[in-house]
Amino acid sequence: MNLALRDIRFGLPRFLLTVAGVGFLITASVGMVGLYRGIVDDALLVIDTIGADLWVVQGGRSGPFAEGSSVPSTMDRRVEGLAGVASVRRFVQFSQQFDVDGRNLRASITGLDYPADTGEWLRLSDGRYLASGHFEAIADASIGLGLGDVVHLGQDDFRIVGLTNGMVDVQGDGLLFVTINDAVDIAKRRTDEEVLLARAKAGGTDAAAGANSSVPQESKIAAVLVSLDPAADQRQVAAAVLAWGDANVLSQADQHNLLLNQRLWRLRVQILAFTVVLLVVMAIVISLIIYTMTIEKLHQIAMLKLIGARNSIIIAMIAEQAALIGVGGFGFGLVVSKLVFPHFPRRIVMDTGDLALLFTAVALICGVASLLGIVRALKVRAQEVLS
Amino acid sequence: MTGAILDVHGATRHYVSGDSIVKALDGVSLEAHGGELVGIVGPSGSGKSTFLLIAGLLEPPTAGDVTIRGQKVSEPGANLDRLRDFRRHAIGFVFQKANLIPFLTAGENVALALEIDDVAARPARAYATDLLINLGLGHRIDNPPARLSGGEQQRVAIARALANDPPLILADEPTAALDSHRGRQVMELFRQIADVRQAAVVVVTHDPRSLDLFDRIYEFADGRIVGEERSADKVRPEAVGLLPQRP
Ligand SMILES: Nc1ncnc2c1ncn2[C@@H]1O[C@H](COP(=O)(O)OP(=O)(O)OP(=O)(O)O)[C@@H](O)[C@H]1O
Ligand SMILES: [Mg+2]
């Protein structure tokens, strides 16, 4: 007769509540770790998928993600002329809010250097790549636009011709891809009121700075993306750009480093610290649950000893219940995670390695807690039944 | 007469409390033979429970020894946890409180004692059912202890103590929590167990109304035996064929 199961059957609602409680703790832990992974993944998404070896940005700046950057829109010609450069693309990205059917939406407008770049490095979930130099857009599903929708941006209407999934910027805003010329126009053309507001904010010192553009000056772009010849020496190309004096150059690794260790540093540490707190809470709560469960049964355990039960029976009862709570809680937590997290506004990455680690941690916690309970249970003397 | 089932010799038990020593038991010698129902009476604090703990191998004596079926099993300093296997076969316990496992049904509580002794689940269950039916608890087999009355719980506890067919049964005030009618029923059950199973049954009791059932009654005071009474005209209730053979 399996005592662990009989006990659970006897107090089924309580057991289920316990498992649910442990499960929700695990859900929270999965969410915390996944939020961290999601933020890092989202941040690096464009840098990793756009496929540039070097980013040529404004001199003295580490743009365009960690800091602002604006370079003349003709910078690409200069870069293209350098030895070792296979191809160049212009890049611009800025946040924009707009109304569609009365809904206030937000997107990160990203310029594609059409016709060289029609967006083929994107993975479309629906529709097609850009096929015209103007007024077409590829939107990420998270923005809330559908295929064929028309959006008014700047002074023009854009038709959504393609959809992507999970393409977002550092802040989690969905990307809206248009040709770079359109993007520059959208950035430039603002309402009179916007211009006034921007001036007021800048304290009136904006006359020269081109206050009527959200990319700091007219006809400026954020960066030039460089693909190198296979044989080219990255350092030589970088040195050549730096020699101009008006531009800085960053590698893909530099961009990673800037985003993770500069721009997102505080957020990352914050989330990690929170995750640690949560894991500690989880460890304490789970071990307390399992330990108390054993302590509550000390009288019965003494009785078992009195009628001559071997230690193995007592150990099995405690260990099996701990295992059931651990495995049940983890399973429940995982199911809830899978059901709930896809509806969260930001990406929660459930990495198999992380889950395996979490499971190991939970198993360890249950193991240690039940071991403590077992040690206590084996110390109980049979005659304690009488007290 | 064959050798005694329980032979306690010169059992002494001292408890140190603060700087004084309490002599809970002070050189008690007592035998119980198969088929005998032995009573222990005496005022509170006279050492009755202490005697049962020592006879039941739950506490070692400070001096003296305990022999069960000719085997010396306990003496000062004995490691009693090692005697758990021995206890399982040799001794059945019944206390004032039934101490049933709350999450098991009445039937499971009894069957557990058998399963602990390596009887397979099915025959254990069948025997537990038989036993409970014979104790008039056939309708309670699938109920948890909380649904049973005090007397019913106590009878389940007795069934559990009997399950492994131990030669020695020790009971500490088993009827104290019961009304006089049910108390009498339980005591008669012990009488039958002694008669039918030829077990030695030692019962500590405060209840003077059932003393007619006992073969011998020892009176304890201050940790010693101060009186022994043999009742020649003990009442033998009809054995109801209550005790099926253990698998
Ligand atoms: N663990 C212990 N530590 C100290 N003293 C104890 C302990 N157990 C029993 N005693 C003392 O030993 C004496 C005998 O106790 P015991 O429980 O055997 O009495 P009893 O005859 O069973 O009494 P009652 O009828 O009240 O159950 C008492 O004075 C008691 O206080
Ligand atoms: Mg007592």
From TrEMBL, chain A:
All copies of domain MacB-like periplasmic core, residue ranges: 16-241
Record membrane topology: Multi-pass membrane protein
Intracellular or extracellular location(s): Cell membrane
Residues that span the membrane, as ranges: 12-36, 271-292, 313-335, 355-378
Pfam families assigned: FtsX, MacB_PCD
GO CC terms, sorted: plasma membrane
Keywords, sorted A to Z: Cell membrane, Membrane, Transmembrane, Transmembrane helix, Transport
Span of domain ABC3 transporter permease C-terminal: 273-379
Protein name: Putative ABC transport system permease protein
UniProtKB/TrEMBL annotation, chain B:
Keyword entries, A-Z: ATP-binding, Nucleotide-binding, Transport
One Pfam family it belongs to: ABC_tran
CDD domains: ABC_MJ0796_LolCDE_FtsE
Domain ABC transporter span(s) in chain numbering: 6-247
InterPro entries recorded: AAA+_ATPase (IPR003593), ABC_transporter-like_ATP-bd (IPR003439), ABC_transporter-like_CS (IPR017871), ABC_transpr_LolD-like (IPR015854), MacB-like_ATP-bd (IPR017911), P-loop_NTPase (IPR027417)
GO CC annotation: plasma membrane
MF term (GO), any: ATP hydrolysis activity
Family, per entry: Belongs to the ABC transporter superfamily.
Matches recorded under PANTHER family: ABC TRANSPORTER ABCH.1 (PTHR24220:SF86), IMPORT ATP-BINDING PROTEIN (PTHR24220)
Name the UniProt record assigns to this protein: Putative ABC transport system ATP-binding protein
Organism of this sequence: Consotaella salsifontis
